[in-house]
Amino acid sequence: xxxxxxxxxxxxxxxxxxxxxxxxxxxxxxxxxxxxxxxxxxxxxxxxxxxxxxxxxxxxxxxxxxxxxxxxxxxxxxxxxxxxxxxxxxxxxxxxxxxxxxxxxxxxxxxxxxxxxxxxxxxxxxxxxxxxxxxxxxxxxxxxxxxxxxxxxxxxxxxxxxxxxxxxxxxxx
Length: 173
Prior knowledge:
Blueprint: H1 3-8, E1 10-14, E2 20-25, E3 29-40, E4 59-67, H2 70-86, H3 92-106, E5 113-123, H4 126-142, E6 145-149, H5 154-160
Antiparallel strand pairs: 1-2, 2-3, 3-5, 3-6, 4-5
Helix pairs in contact: 2-3
């Protein structure tokens, strides 16, 4: 199926409190749910998500990155630094890292931004789709990523899968 045919013939319906979205098409219904990336290991590497390739079910991995402007990133880091100082936080290593990050940001050694990552699975049965989602969470943990159920933002995450819809990303990290 081509995406132009698929999108025009379905209607996503989500419940107010659920994480499963029902997709109603002309001739049948199916269900989808997503797992979002919540946290990562300190170091990442190419191929880190390769374990997902071993899944015995179909899934859709969506990722996007939106850069912050240099001034917004500096403001963010400065506020974080001031917050730690004002609360007399004992995390001296974090303060040092924030100073280093500000220096590296000013030197343009890296950029800051928001990463959005989700893995969507689908099935004809609602319980089966939830089982697949739990398996995805376990696989992501094995890849060094903490995954979480999207829940209330499930419909937004569904639309964020499409190109140009970054504004619908549920909770960018």
